[in-house]
Amino acid sequence: MRLPILALLLAAAACTDASAAETRLAPAPKQDVAAGAGLQTAVLAGGCFWGVEAVFEHVKGVRAVVSGYAGGSADDANYRAVSAGRTDHAEAVKITYDPRQVSYGTLLRIFFSVAHDPTQLDRQGPDVGRSYRSAIFPQDAQQRAVAAAYVAQLGQSGMFRRPIVTRIERGQFHLAERSHQDFMRKNPLHPYILAHDAPKLRALKRAAPSLYRS
Question: Across the chain, how many H-helices and E-strands are there?
Answer without folding.
Answer: 9, 8
